[in-house]
Amino acid sequence: MIYDVVIIGAGPAGLSAGLYAARARMSTLIIEKEAAGGQIATTDEVANYPGSVEDATGPSLVARMVEQAEGFGAKRISDTIESVDVAGKIKILKGEKEEYQARTVIVATGAVPKHIGCPGEKELTGRGVSYCATCDGAFFEDLEVFVVGGGDSAVEEAMYLTKFARKVTIVHRRDQLRAAKSIQEKALKNEKIEYLWDSVITELKGDGLLESMVVKNVKTGEESEIFADEDDGTFGVFVFVGYDPANKLFEGLVQMENGYIVTDDNMATNIPGVFAAGDNRVKSLRQVVTATADGAIAATQAEKYIENNFEE
Amino acid sequence: MIELNKENFEEEVLTAEGTVLVDFWSPSCEPCKALMPHVHELEEEFGDKIKFTSLDITKARRVAIGQKVLGLPVIAIYQNGERVDGVVGDEATTKSVKELVEKYS
Description:
- The complex is a heterodimer.
- By secondary structure, chain A is of the alpha/beta class.
- Helices cover about 25% and strands about 30% of the residues of chain A.
- Chain A is elongated and about 70 Å long.
- Chain B contains four helices and five strands.
- Chain B has a five-stranded mixed β-sheet with strand order 1-3-2-4-5.
- In chain B, helix 2 runs parallel beside helix 4.
- Classes of the chains: A alpha/beta, B alpha/beta.
- The interface between A and B is medium-sized, with 33 and 27 residues.
């Protein structure tokens, strides 16, 4: 079958696109790689999404979005797209399991956490180094934890981690946080949070588990090594230093800028019938609220594109 | 899938003969929960060659740390009580887990 709309990615952008597309009675398929939700699925608290209920968590918000999109008839499947051919009028997406055909494609692949990029990081991932506080926070009950970064995610996740950890130290390369003021105010009141300013991690060490790390002061150039408490034997390093767009599939196929897909105000890329929505496109604010807006616009424009380019 | 805990981990994994798969997970780990149905599917196909088990780390945190597991998801393969292979974090995908299971069955 040829779908009217195939959406790659089931985060807020993809699910919102799915909801709008299915509501417009277009045949709609949402393809998700692993779990629905994207980054927000591993976020503990969603306080800034308008209309969000109190104590809304990422997973609960996503679950409601999924239910809503499916309620209008969007189909959801789990597959990993390995290659795409979007040049023709009918777009072909080759997945691990199946091949899909579509009149329009909405690329809502989102972004993935950036790594520090220092020696030892890869070897110690899952052994003390983590990119997901809700996944791994519980391991660090009464242990020491370091959070790398100074943006909203870093500070919010640092606060979440104080539920478990004995002490949480924010390691930031500048001398002040970049997070929203309201988040900073909350964090500054939290007695379990300490700060290591002007600092970056240059090496992570450990045999099997994270045991020490080398921290460099970017102002003085001085390096020092921080060791795990002897009784603990290990500690945690949670990395929130930004995100990279997950656009590999479309490299060389659609126009990009620094790895982000370039779209117009209608979410259209330079390839007819291919739209982008969410964190993977060039934009100034990457939040759930802008992702869902992108998705709605992309789906509406996909409908227009089909009306203009395909006969009934 | 055998549910592991503090009491039976040693018997079911560390002193068990043959090949054992351990799915380390926690209720707040969304990627782990997304992976779980795929692991169940693999059990139906390969359950006669590999013993499939899962450990909720919130009920046995020290056991997990003892196995040098300090981040999720982890799908680990044990042979005669020795951890011989596994996939961790972002690397644990439906594809990589399937390849892992096929390699040891």
